[in-house]
Amino acid sequence: MATLDGSVVLLCSGSADTRSQIAQSLAAASRVAHDHLLHPEDYWTEEETLVAVYRPPQRTLADLLRDGNLSDGAAVTVLVPALEALEALHSAGIAGVDFGLDSVYVDEAGAPKISLHGTEVRTNAPTVHWRRTDVRVEQDAVAAEALLSRLLADSDGVPKDVRASYAERRWQQAAEALLAWRQPLALSAVIESDAARGRAETRVTRRQLRHAGRDAMRRGWWLGIERISTGVRRLVAEFLPSLRSVRRSVWIMGALGVSAAVAAGVFVLWTPGSSEGARTEGGETPDSELFSDYAEEAGQSEFIETDRQGQSDSSQSTPDADEGTIAAVLEELLFEREACLGSGDIECLGEVVMAGTLLYSDDASGMPQWRAPKSVDVQIDQHLGDAVIATVVSEEQPVSVLAVNTETGWLLREIWPA
């Protein structure tokens, strides 16, 4: 199973029985239509591989139950559509529904989505006798009973008519009995709590990334210092034997020569009148006058001034040049990522983002995968050794981008809301 832009891709290339099971699920999905069933967006075969593409919501019942059990009204909001979907499946002769907390999805509006993975067409003529005797229908009933008990664990008690409808496998009647028992309540508060938890996890991840960047920079400094010290020690070890082979008389002559040169320089600098005598009354040296006269006669005074100006301009540092180049590279990477996501090409994404990142799918917070607008403006915020943190300026959803300069070039590492 792999994720790509919020989609779940099932790749089956195993035994014939496994491929047949998935084919049965696809056949069941094409046989019944219901708003609370998660149908595949597409499916096809490639030689011996069967491919099915789903796009489930980002939350499951397990996510909503992390902070505790649901209220009776919120539980009814989940149970009623799930039972109606189960009734539609059994009425079409389909069984094998997975009611596990990780298999029941919940969309942003709080409506459940039941996965059809694992279901199969059991009969073309569903009857009451079939509902009471089929093994897979019995498994569905046990799973539905477990879901009811889990969601209403804190309830005072489930009404008898609900239990009776469960026993007779009449799921539509059970849904109507639940509606008569409790008023459904919106799951917006529960979903917002789960979203807040996801944002907190994102902030923790960002702090971890910042700390990891600083640690990597420190390790880089210490590694550089260690390499320099090792090189210096190696040079000293190689150079000392050659120094010891030089005769003492040569050292003495060299020291005397250096001393004589230093003494001559001091004598020239401190001789009275040696510096003032070379200056004229106008404050310019004769050499500068001769050079100026020569430049004017040759018509090169303008050239000299231009050359000095050019040297002055070239001496100025341009720190923004590298940042502009990196920003342009990041913009190109973002556009390439959009093209890869649009075409659904995982190999193409591997050339743009680093392996092991969350950029192949939605992030851990449950927020939808960020998509770049048609025109982006990237601004470099911080350098972290071989990595940079940049901001993608956008009126709708500005984001921060972590990119790493690897041996193969710049690659995207993470994207999170700014």
What does this structure look like?
By secondary structure, this protein is α+β, with helices and mostly antiparallel strands. The protein has 13 helices and 14 strands. The protein has helices at residues 16-31, 61-64, 72-91, 128-133, 135-151, 160-167, 171-181, 188-244, 248-270, 286-298, 301-315, 319-343, 346-350, and strands spanning 2-4, 7-12, 37-38, 42-46, 49-54, 59-60, 94-95, 104-106, 112-115, 120-121, 377-384, 387-393, 399-406, 409-417. The strands form four sheets. Strands 1-2-5-4 form a four-stranded antiparallel beta sheet, covered by helices on one side. Helix 3 runs antiparallel to helix 5 (135-151) and helix 6 packs antiparallel against helix 7 (171-181). Mean pLDDT is 75; it is low at 1-5, 274-292, 297-319 and 362-366. Keywords: Membrane, Transmembrane, Transmembrane helix. Residues 303-322 are annotated as: Disordered. This is Protein kinase domain-containing protein. The chain crosses the membrane at residues 250-270.
Characteristics of this structure?
418 residues; alpha+beta; Transferase(Phosphotransferase), domain 1; Nuclear Transport Factor 2, Chain: A; four-stranded antiparallel β-sheet; four-stranded mixed β-sheet; 13 helices
